[in-house]
Amino acid sequence: MYHPSGSVARQTAGSSAGLLDPRTAPRSSDSEAILFQRCTWCATAMYHRLLCPVCQGSDLRTERSEGTGTVRHATVVHRNTPAARNVSLIEMAEGFVVRGRVMGPLIGIHSGDRVRLSTAKDPVRGEPVFQMLDEPYRAWI
Prior knowledge:
Layout: H1 8-13, E1 35-39, E2 45-46, E3 60-64, E4 68-77, E5 85-92, E6 97-102, E7 114-119, E8 129-132
Parallel strand pairs: 6-8
Antiparallel strand pairs: 1-2, 1-3, 4-5, 4-7, 5-6, 7-8
C-alpha cells in the first residue's frame, strides 16, 4: 500500500513519535480525561502506542476521550492487596480499549455494562477509575 509522504508542516503538526502530549490535545472543560492517539492515515484509535497496530504508521495525533465506554471483561484480583479489587477492560466510545477499575460491588460488574470515567488516574495504581452509568437490573437466580 502506498502512502504519499506528507509535507514537513504536516509531519511536525502532531506530537513527536505519536507520544501522548497534553499540550497538543484539544482542550475540554473537564480537567480529568483520558488521552488517546488516532492514526492520521487509517483513523484507528489506540491507547499508549508508538505505532498504529493496523497500518504501522507513526503519524499519530493526540485526542481527548469523551469518557464513556462499555465493560468488555471484568475480573476480581486478590493478589498483592489487602482486599479484593476488580480489573476491567473497558472499550471506550472512540474505539480503543483501556484497562481500569470500575467502582461498585465486585459481583455487580459484568460484561456489557456501560461506564463513565470518574478519575483519569487513580493515585495508588495510576489507572483510570470508572463508575457505572446504569444500575444493573438483574433478576436473582
